[in-house]
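Hi F.,

I've been meaning to write this up properly since the lab meeting, where we talked about keeping a consistent format for the predictions we share between groups. The idea is simple: the sequence comes first, exactly as it goes in, then the structure tokens exactly as they come out, then a line or two of notes. No screenshots and no reformatting. I'm using this chain as the first example so we have something concrete to point to.
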Amino acid sequence: MMTPRPHIRHLLLLFAILVPLIALEAHAQGCAQCLDSTRATPPAVQAAYRHAILLLVSAASLLFVIGFVLFRRNP
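Output, unedited:
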């Protein structure tokens, strides 16, 4: 298996850094029903929801990155 050229590795690294930053814009997206449900809750519960969402996103991202690294390893 051929290894990617160094400039391709740099582009992949740049892409891996920029995608999560771009995804921050989509952080507050959601359905109208969820939005109405969370607006009706106290501020402490809303903060807990925000923390839970970040925790779930970071866990899923970490699993994806680990899977990608294991997939890309040379046998």
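Notes:
The mean pLDDT is 79.
Residues 26 and 48 are 19 Å apart (CA to CA).

If this format works for you, I'll send the rest the same way.

G.
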